[in-house]
Specification:
The protein folds into 2 domains: 69 residues, Arc Repressor Mutant, subunit A (Orthogonal Bundle), CATH 1.10.10.10; 140 residues, Up-down Bundle (Four Helix Bundle (Hemerythrin (Met), subunit A)), CATH 1.20.120.530. By secondary structure, the protein is mainly α. It has a 3-stranded antiparallel β-sheet with strand order 1-3-2. The radius of gyration is 18 Å and the shape is globular. The chain is 71% helix and 4% strand. A hairpin with a 5-residue loop joins strand 2 and strand 3. Helix 4 packs antiparallel against helix 9 and helix 6 packs antiparallel against helix 7.
Length: 218
């Protein structure tokens, strides 16, 4: 039963996030548990949990009376978050390249190379690979507080990552090629090449996310 609840929470959150990402729910749109329960045909608990997660992500805010509303996206703050994450992750890689989990990177590359970019779950595969790849980089840090801080940054950027990994942005085939190239650089044994590839990857992601968000009606 718990697994079903988690699944419903994630489904509700993902659908609401998709609508915010695509502008179907512009800033100021009011959301209530009652209307979402009726639309999704699920109980209040998973809807409440999904809304709570979106509030934590800074995408919606609780109204003083009842319900929530979609927030006006603060592009400057989001840009600062993405830049901070980029600086921290690059610092970890530069200082701890020798500590990368090579076996984990090779396994991830093999899985990605075997994945079908035309499969129905190709975008979800892209998200999963992205998460695992960057966690492997962060886990190479030889300072536990730095590892924890990097992990928190990855969680904070998740809602905005989906602006890039969403339909209409880069295709699954493009995402696959990009991440294979990054994995090849990380596995090359050349720390400078690896850092350049990671910097280009993160900067491209930052640029694409901000460009996509500027297209959303506010």
């Amino acid at each position: 039963m718990a697994l079903q609840k988690i699944s419903l929470v994630e489904q509700a959150r993902t659908e609401l996030l998709r609508r915010i990402v695509t502008g179907l729910l512009p800033a100021g749109t009011r959301l209530t548990e009652e209307s979402l329960c009726a639309e999704f045909a699920i109980s209040r608990t998973p809807v409440r949990d999904a809304l709570s997660r979106l509030e934590t992500d800074g995408l919606i805010e609780r109204l003083p009376t009842r319900g929530y509303q979609v927030c006006l996206l603060d592009l400057a703050a989001i840009d600062e978050l993405l830049v901070c994450r980029m600086k921290i992750e690059l610092m970890i890689l530069r200082e701890n390249y020798a500590g990368l989990a090579i076996a984990g990177l090779r396994e991830l590359r093999a899985e990605l190379a075997a994945a079908d970019p035309d499969a129905a779950d190709a975008l979800e595969t892209a998200r999963t690979v992205d998460d695992r790849l960057h966690r492997l980089v962060g886990d190479a840090a030889d300072n536990r507080f730095l590892r924890e801080f990097h992990a928190r940054l990855l969680c904070r950027r998740l809602p905005y990552r989906d602006f890039r990994n969403s339909p209409g942005a880069l295709s699954p085939a493009e995402l696959r090629r990009e991440r294979l190239a990054l994995l090849d650089a990380l596995l090359s044994g050349d720390s400078e090449r690896a850092c350049r590839a990671l910097a280009e990857h993160l900067e491209a992601g930052r640029r694409d996310v901000l460009a996509a968000m500027r297209q959303i009606p506010q």
